[in-house]
Amino acid sequence: MSGAPGLYRLYHYWRSSSSWRVRFGLSLKGLTYEPVAISLLDGSSESAEYLERNPAGFVPVLEIPDQDHRRLTESLAILMYLEDRHPGTAPFLPEDPYLKARCWALAETINAGIQPIQNLPVLHRHSSDPEEQKNWARHFIRKGLEVYETLCTPTRGKFSIGDQPTLADLCLSPQLYNADRYQVDWSDLRNLVEIEQACQGLAAWGESHPDRFKPADFHG
Ligand SMILES: N[C@@H](CCC(=O)N[C@@H](CS)C(=O)NCC(=O)O)C(=O)O
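A: This is the predicted complex of the input protein with glutathione.
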């Protein structure tokens, strides 16, 4: 559960999909953490202090207070660290080598194939016109979700790989939230619709959802 203080400190932004992956994973494993909000809108993530935490100026960053305040960047690396340090409870990867590789392929379909291309700095570099930014994001989100839909067909059960949530689902649900933000219609992608329903049934999904972390003064 989130709350302060915890075993971990998570620098995050409430509606960053990469941040939500980690919040989701922490909740799934029942790990305590202190969430520290970093705004992506007011320059906080570009401050010298923050760049020391992550030279990319990205969220999330995981800090590990009981280990000399060591830090980790990159959401999937963070999730693998949590998996290695807290094995057994809600494993993020299937044991079977083939399914494990399929799980990674699904996670990377989002982590490498969608998220970076629709990240804010890329949208701003692409165009200064908000409508054009949205069109760009919509195109790549929809295309990537179609790939995921097909790719998960042979492995899916309730979740993307079988009947337990894995790394793939930790990436999928936040990306679908982003798809909704950009008004991407994915209602015809039946695998995704059903997997998302299963994700929404998890307590960890609600505990880690962006709405729980939305700043009270946020309007827009
Ligand atoms: N591959 C990185 C991506 C991190 C990333 O791009 N985070 C976004 C939010 S989802 C960010 O911080 N963007 C900076 C910005 O919008 O200025 C990860 O998985 O942690």
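The mean pLDDT is 95. The chain has two domains: 8-90, 97-204.
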